[in-house]
Design a protein that fits this description.
single chain, alpha/beta, binds zinc ion
C-alpha cells in the first residue's frame, strides 16, 4: 500500500484538516465537527452545518453510534488479500467459499457492483475488485488498481475465463480495454458483460446508443 501515492485518498485532507481557521484561531468543537462531516462525498459546507446541528440538537445518541461505528469500521475493515474487496479478516467470505467456481474470475470496479452481480444469482465464480477505474487525470494508474496482481491471479492455471464487468462509462470502458489487452497478450480468455435493452424495456423508450449496441451485440436464438 506504500505505493498508493495518495491518488485515491488524502485529497480532502488538505488545509481544512490542519486544525486552524483562516484567522489563526483553533476551531471550536462545532467547527471541527462540520469540517469532519465535509469528508463525506457530496457534502458541502451548508449540508455539513445542517448535519452537525441536527445531530447535536435532535440525535445525540445516533451521533455517538455513528462515531463508534466509524471508529470500529476504520480499525477492523481491510482489503481482502485475494480480491481486494472489503473484509474483516485476511480473506473475504466469497474467496473462502470453496463451492464457488474458481475457473471464472469477474472483474468489477467496486464492492457495490459485486453485490449487484451477486443479487442476480447468475454468477458462481470468484471476483477481483479494482476499487476504482483507470483515470490518468486523477493520477490513478494500473498500480493503484493492483493490475499486476490481477494478471498473476488470472494466469494461475486455474482461472480459464476473466469476465470484465467494469462500468459502461468512458473510464470503465477504458479500464476494460486496458485489462483485456493485458490478459489477451498472455493468451488468456477474456469476455465483457454484454450490453443491451433493459429487462422489461420497450424499444420506443430506450436511448439510441443502447439500441445500437444491442444490435451490434445481437446473437442467434
Ligand atoms: Zn476476497
Amino acid at each position: 500500500m506504500a505505493s498508493k501515492s495518495g491518488a485515491t485518498g488524502g485529497r480532502a485532507a488538505g488545509s481544512r484538516a490542519a486544525g486552524r481557521t483562516s484567522d489563526g484561531k483553533t476551531p471550536s468543537s462545532l467547527e471541527q465537527l462540520i469540517e469532519a462531516l465535509r469528508h463525506l462525498p457530496g457534502v458541502g459546507p451548508k449540508s455539513a452545518q445542517r448535519m452537525a446541528f441536527h445531530l447535536l440538537q435532535h440525535d445525540r445518541e445516533g451521533a455517538l453510534q455513528l462515531a463508534q461505528a466509524l471508529d470500529h469500521a476504520c480499525s477492523s475493515v481491510q482489503h481482502c488479500t485475494r480480491c481486494h474487496t472489503f473484509t474483516e479478516g485476511d480473506l473475504c467470505t466469497t474467496c473462502r467459499d470453496d463451492t464457488r467456481d474458481a475457473h471464472l474470475l469477474c472483474v468489477v470496479e467496486n464492492p457495490a457492483d459485486q453485490m449487484m452481480i451477486e443479487q442476480t444469482l447468475t454468477y458462481k465464480g470468484l471476483y477481483f475488485v479494482l476499487m476504482g477505474h483507470l483515470s490518468p487525470l486523477d493520477g490513478i494508474g494500473p498500480r493503484d488498481l493492483h493490475l499486476e496482481q490481477l494478471l498473476a491471479r488470472a494466469s494461475d492455471g486455474v482461472v480459464s475465463e476473466v469476465v470484465l464487468a467494469t462500468n459502461f462509462t468512458s473510464e470503465g470502458e477504458a479500464t476494460a480495454h486496458y485489462i483485456s489487452e493485458m490478459l489477451k497478450a498472455r493468451g488468456l480468455a477474456v469476455s465483457r458483460l454484454a450490453r443491451g435493452v433493459p429487462a422489461g424495456g420497450e424499444l420506443e423508450y430506450v436511448d439510441a446508443g443502447t439500441i445500437a449496441r444491442a444490435m451490434l451485440d445481437r446473437r442467434s436464438t
